[in-house]
Amino acid sequence: MNRKAENGRKEHKEGQGQKVTIEKFDIYLDQICGLVKAREVHNDLREELGNHLHEIICDKEQEGYSPDQAAAYAIEQMGDPTELGKSMHKLHRHRMHWGLLAGVIGLAQYRYFQLPSAASCLTDFVWA
Question: For the whole prediction, is pTM greater than 0.70?
Answer without folding.
Answer: no
